[in-house]
Each structure stands twice: as C-alpha cells, then as structure tokens.
Amino acid sequence: MKRALFLILLFAPLLAEGVRPQRxxxxxxxxxxxxxxxxxxxxxxxxxxLAEMERKTAGKTAFVALSPHxxxxxAGEFYLLSASLLRADTVxxxxxxxxxxxxxxxxxxxxxxxxxxxxxxxxEGAVQVDLPxxxxxxxNLPRSRVLINRKAHSEEHSVEASLGFLKRxxxxxxxxxxxxSAWEWEEGAALAEELGALLARWLQERKGEPGxxxxxxxxxxATHYGPDxxxxxxxxxxxxxxxxxxxDRKIAGETLLGTIDQRKISLFFREVVDxxxxxxxxxxxxxxxxxxxxxxxxxKLSLYGIEGGYGDSYSxxxxxxxxxxxxxxxxxxxxxxxxxxxxxxxxxx
Length: 349
What we know:
Blueprint: H1 2-16, E1 19-20, H2 32-45, H3 47-57, E2 62-67, H4 72-80, E3 90-96, H5 99-104, E4 112-114, E5 119-120, E6 127-129, H6 131-140, E7 146-148, H7 150-155, H8 163-169, E8 174-180, H9 185-205, E9 214-219, E10 221-225, H10 238-255, E11 258-260, H11 262-273, E12 279-280, H12 284-297, E13 302-312, H13 313-316, E14 337-348
Parallel strand pairs: 1-5, 2-9, 3-8, 3-9, 4-7, 6-8
Antiparallel strand pairs: 2-14, 4-8, 5-6, 10-12, 10-14, 11-13, 13-14
Helix pairs in contact: 2-4, 6-9, 9-12, 10-11
C-alpha cells in the first residue's frame, strides 16, 4: 500500500503535465454546476434567439461554428448558438494570439501554433486531444509554418472558453487546438489550402464524414471598442456604440451568411483585416473558413452560413451569477464594449 501511494505521488506531477490547466477561472465556468447555471440563465435571457436558431438548424449538421471567448456571464447564449451545436467526434479549435502571447513569440506571421498536451481541463472534465491527428498534421505541414509551443497555449485563453460547451454536447469529443497567427492573404490562403487538403485526405483514409467525424470551431469576439482598446473611429458614447455595432452586423451579414465562396472570405479579409479593425479573431475567421471550404469541396459540398445572433457586452450586461462563483474580467460601458457574433456553417450540395 505504501509503495503504491509512493508511486502515485511520484508520477502525479508527470501525469498532470499532460493536462493543460484552465487559465481563466473567473470568467469561465470551472464546474458542471456553474456551466449548467450559465446555460439556464442564458436560455432565460434570450429564449427567442435560441428558439429561432433551433428552428433554422433543425435537421442540419453543423460543420463550422463561430464562437466567442469572452466571459460566460457576458456572452453565455452565444456559446449556445455556436459551440453547443457541434457534435463531431473531433473538433479543430482555431484560437488566436492575444497581444501578450503574440509578443512573447516575437509577433509571428503565417504560422500555426500547436500544443503538446494530451488533454485540456474544462468545466466538464478533461477533454482529450486527438493525438494521432495532431501528429499527422505537424509531420505533413511545412516545417516553416508549424510551431509546437506549450507556453503559448498555456497563456492563451481563446481555446479554453468553449471546451465545456463542446464536451457537454458530446461527452466523447476530442479536440485539436491550433492558434492562428497574423497572415498575409496569399501566404495564408496557400497554407489554408494545404491544411484543408491534408484534412480531406485524413477523413477519406478513415472513411470519415465532415460534421460527424470532424468539425471546426473558430474562436472570435467581434469589435473591441473604446479608448482602452485604442479604437474609437466613431467617437465615444451612445451614438458611437450604435454605429459600431451596426458596422459589425453589416460586415458579418455581407461576408459570413449564405453560401460561402472565395469572394466573401476575401471581402471579410479586406473589410476587417486590411483596415485593422479590432475584431478579435480577424485572422481566425477567414483562415478557418478557407480550410473548412477546402474540406467541403473534397466532397463536392459548400459551406452555408446561418446566423445565430449578434450582441455586445454593453447592451446585454451580466447574467446574475456573481454569488455562485463566477465573475467578469473586464468592465463594460458605451465607451468600453465587445461585440459577439455567433453562427454556424452547414454543408450543402
């Protein structure tokens, strides 16, 4: 008995190193009970929005989800309109490099950052990483475009935000976290084409189906507005808030809905990336859509974007859960707000 206990104590730190711990334990749910509370309160706050999404997606299989990474108390229903609709056995979660993480890597471009964890901690327990798929991709992608960096993934919160919702929807889900750096159109599009072709081949070799065996989650928050973000193109106040949120809706409506083709993806890139909007996920969305579009094309299918909904931290406020262990990690006002655009993409012939 003592020997067994000794071995457990000896190897526990080594075992723990294989699981990526949750970084944000204030803004994101850490237990099943907290996640349930967030879901129930979000359902009460936005019943019409959620019911409409259920109607629009009935009988359809979600292949790609645009999901937020802001606090659960601020953006709760937008996870239900996106991440919670994925049912695939493996979900590639494209995250981004927030400023501090990006700077720690010397501001890379045209690079995909993989982790080396076996699993990630979530409110629903450990979510396993699809290790064979990670090995397959990191071995077959150009070495100059791949970085395996545990530290970057340990400090970046854009992947962990949705994991509890994914696992709640599919307890057996596996993930493959990939952080997407900044990229120029030609180089990034070429890399997306190569990654998409590899994933199409991987699915074919395993007789897998898109949406059932593989799906994508694109982590993003829309515009970050205010002096704190050094971004006030419409000024400050109620009118500026209205103009900023209307622009978010307009861009998303023109580029992310309906049948997705190269023109719409490149238009998003021009409207959001080239103008340096503070859309937090501006590189993730076009890259992820190009990859998913390539996989879909291998089955002679296309992507079709279905709106989940738009909101922002100032308009919505906070779900009333402070006394139950959750909080928020940033203020919100007409001069400091974050937009949320949630949607899914299905496959169509």
